Amino acid sequence: xxxxxxxxxxxxxxxxxxxxxxxxxxxxxxxxxxxxxxxxxxxxxxxxxxxxxxxxxxxxxxxxxxxxxxxxxxxxxxxxxxxxxxxxxxxxxxxxxxxxxxxxxxxxxxxxxxxxxxxxxxxxxxxxxxxxxxxxxxx
Length: 139
Prior knowledge:
Blueprint (H helix, E strand, L loop, with lengths): L15 E7 L6 E9 L10 E6 L2 E2 L22 E2 L22 E6 L15 H14 L1
Antiparallel strand pairs: 1-2, 2-4, 3-6, 4-5
């Protein structure tokens, strides 16, 4: 069975990647990334990103195993990463409190590129002022 895949485009104004996916069956667990920057510090494009992902709890269900019956959390709890000490019946439980083994891996690879630069937005006000001054001199 092939791993799920998708193609998407980024540009210099939209270069942050985020995604979230549910782990099923599970109470309300998920994995994802938030605002992964595909632009390098040198304003080039990242060639490859590989991230191992641990599960997070959405805080809407109080179940502790993959197949726990629905038990809404009232009130809902804060979204948080699961830990190995959350509950003895959890599949991630480790009485020594070790790190949770990742449950997924995301691999993002650049397959094409249009243009060399990705992020040309100035970092601070001084850069903006200097850029405006350069533009006025060129006229």
